[in-house]
Write a structure and sequence with these properties.
- The complex is a heterodimer of chains A (464) and B (122).
- Chain A is of the alpha+beta class and 464 residues long.
- Chain A is built from 16 helices and 20 strands.
- The longest helix of chain A is centred in the N-terminal third of the chain and has 16 residues, at 7-22.
- Chain A starts with 6 loop residues before the first helix and ends with a helix.
- Chain B has 122 residues and is mainly α.
- Helix content of chain B is 51%, strand content 0%.
- Chain B has helices spanning 8-20, 32-37, 43-51, 54-57, 70-77, 81-90, 106-117.
- Chain B is globular and about 30 Å long.
- Chains A and B meet through β1, α9 and α10 of A and α1, α3 and α6 of B.
Chain lengths: 464, 122
Amino acid sequence: MAIHLTRRQLLQRAGVAGAFATLFTSPVMAQLARSPRLIPWRNWSGGQSCLPLARLAPQSLDELVQVIRQAEGKIRPVGSAHSFSPLVPTDGTLVSLSYFNGLLGHDPRTLQAEFAAGTPMSLMGPALKGIGQALPNMADIDYQTLAGAISTSTHGTGVGFGSYSSHVTGLQLVSATGEVLDCDAQRHPEVFNAARVSLGAFGVATRVRLQNREAYRLRERQWIARTEELLEDVEKNTRENQHWEMLVITHSDYALSIALNETSDPATPPLDPAEEGGNEFVSIIEGLDKYGSDFPAARRALLNSLRHIASFDDRVADSYEIYANVRNVRFNEMEYSVPAEHGPACLREILKLIRDKDLRTWFPIEYRYVKADDIPLSMFEGRDSCSISVHQHYTMDHHNFFAAIEPIFWKYAGRPHWGKLHTLNARTLQPLYPRWKEFTEVRRELDPQGKFLNAHLSSILGVA
Amino acid sequence: MSIPGTPLLPAALLALLGLLGGCGDDARPAAASQSATLAPADKALAKIYDNSCKTCHANPASGAPQAGDVEAWRPRVAQGADSLLDHSINGYKGMPPMGMCMQCSEEEFLALVSFMSGQHIQ
């Protein structure tokens, strides 16, 4: 007679058998029988994974210091796992900051506020509104934690606005030795300056102080236009709108243009949940790819016709409600930031390649602008930038698509987003960052043994 | 986005899209106010729920089954604890791997699903 067991039943029975065996075998076996099963870690897209020895979530600063001092092997901090690049994977200790959460204090005079570093960006808007403040700009996804967002120079759009990292005025770090460092422009300024974009390679950030502004509302206006016309009008669109971006519909001649501007108008009624975030739009395009990719001309005609059937109502709400969108379709992403003036040429070349080679993709390409900053390893260091992001649905192979596009970014001196997929290493990255040495020297001083370096970080930072 | 169809080609597109209906997730949105106020009785679990699951499971726009929506959870729970654990840890469609809880154990994942579905799962 066959015995059918589920995996869980099998594990439970194996556990019982293991416990029984400990009565007769070695202490090592007894330890193994008591050990919980290792659970793999995966990132948001599912494209990165590891099997860490320990996944820990310390509940206090003291606990975190002990974890860092006592952990054997590599330690990697993890936020909401929204990075597509392998910043997190480790077979050592994964440290979650999920209990380092919430608003810690604020100054109504300077409009600065301090948050625990593990606070999800999605919770910061309402907390700041409660004290009359708001972030000056936000990304269109708010699943990230604050520490994760600043560690990778995550950003929104707007020629007058820098990344989240550029608004950091102070932070607290626990280094590889367990030392707690409070840094800002006066205290440990060299550490502070580089730690604003650290890839989690300096230690674990526990508190972050941000320069905010008074709370405000935004009006969102969306319209579909020919991509080429929008590119010709880039200067006008970016000058006349505080936040402007476009989502280019691949295999079509059109893009969705999105403009956000501050307003004192009253809030409009909340959206129907089914329409929020434009996911309905994404579903339509996905469907056309599935059934129309063998007929490229018909697909292009159908996609182009979307402009006739799509209309968008203006939306007014608190800033944080307008910036962030629900994204329930998972994907992998590659993003490079090129000098702002090269943005249109770079995008045109990408779109030409996709069309000429009929590259398999259906996700829109995101096209945004970010103001220059002075952070050594920020993608925006020393130059106003245009960020161009290409995506692939998480079930579709992204390697060939990204590999075809990536050389175009290199041609325009693009810098890859640290949290997104790319194939560069220290040899190719260093020439892109004039202040590379400032970063690597601080890192070496804080973590000479490389306790916070996994294989990916060793590769991109050039540490053997 | 709203779709007030008019010309011929767009009408054909709408017809095509109509044929494609049902390809997506079939989660049934629950009243936002209902799911937004629910929290696990256990304080430690409530903390985890607040920091992770709540982002989507108390937000109808996410398309995820909402906390307390027993009907939406019923077919999922029927798949058994193994499937629910697999989807929690490895992700499934819109559900991200780990469900935004990087440190959760199998027992915690199951306790969270039990809370949200209103059905005891082990």
